[in-house]
Amino acid sequence: MEIKAYHPKYEKGWLQCRVLAFLSTAYYDNVLQEKENYKHPSIELVAIHQSKVVGLIDVEYETEKNQVCTGERGLGGMIWHLAVHPDYQRLQIGQHLLHRVENLAIEKGLTYLEAWTRDDNWVVDWYKKNDFRPVYAYLHVFMEGKSEMQHVKSEIKALRPVQTWAHYNGENEESIRQTFERVHTCTGLEKRLDDAKRL
């Protein structure tokens, strides 16, 4: 396996790796047809095995505080995508990608990395094992069907929503979970790179 900088020639493999990796997670329906481009500078890496993309990581980072991330202490990098092909999981590919990103981020003067994930405990645990700490959480709420969509109104005449999803950061979490069938906790995690630098 070799870790390389992303190149557009890897786009098809990048998309396939991401969708297959996400199928077994709470992001199973978050499918992309094109790889994202970022407004700010980014670190984009792929893990290649026998000409196949088997892992990937994308981090968009700041040159000024709060351009991309939500933290308040220095410049951050947001992990938008981190995935390992199912046939290559548990081989520490994700860890290798993360460590390479951390080294590059430190070189660029970043002080922390930020990541957000839904309520797959194994994903949250993976981040914790890699020294990320949870800093915030809110709900992703998916709505469809007549009983759930009665809570959503359109201000445009003749436009009737039939499916939607929303963020909820209020105090009545239990009520939201009782009202809607598909609700995920979205957890924000942070890793201080100045701490990692001292290790």
Q: What features would you describe in this structure?
A:
The protein has 199 residues and is α+β, with helices and mostly antiparallel strands. The protein contains six helices and eight strands, in the order E-H-E-E-E-H-E-H-E-H-E-H-E-H. Helix 2 links the parallel strand 4 and strand 5 (112-117). The protein starts with a strand and ends with a helix.
Structure in a nutshell:
The protein has 199 residues and is an alpha+beta fold. It has six helices and eight strands.
Q: Which descriptors would you attach to this protein?
A:
GNAT_dom, 8-stranded mixed β-sheet, Acyl_CoA_acyltransferase, single chain, N-term/lysine_N-AcTrnsfr, acyltransferase activity, transferring groups other than amino-acyl groups, 27% helix
The CATH H-level superfamily of the domain at 2-115 is Gcn5-related N-acetyltransferase (GNAT)
Q: Quaternary status of these chains? A: single chain
- Rounded to an integer in angstroms, the radius of gyration calculated over CA atoms is 18 Å
Let me know the largest β-sheet: 8 strands, mixed
CATH hierarchy: architecture of the domain at 2-115: 3-Layer(aba) Sandwich
User: What is the helical fraction, as a range of percent?
Assistant: 25-40%
CATH class of the domain at 2-115: Alpha Beta
> Which fold name corresponds to the CATH topology of the domain at 2-115?
Aminopeptidase
Structural class from helices and strands?
alpha+beta
- Count the E strands: 8
In terms of DSSP E residues, the strand content is 25-35%
Give start-end ranges of low-pLDDT stretches: none
Order of helices and strands: EHEEEHEHEHEHEH
Total DSSP helices: 6
Describe the global form. globular
In what order do the strands lie side by side in the largest sheet? 1-2-3-4-5-8-6-7
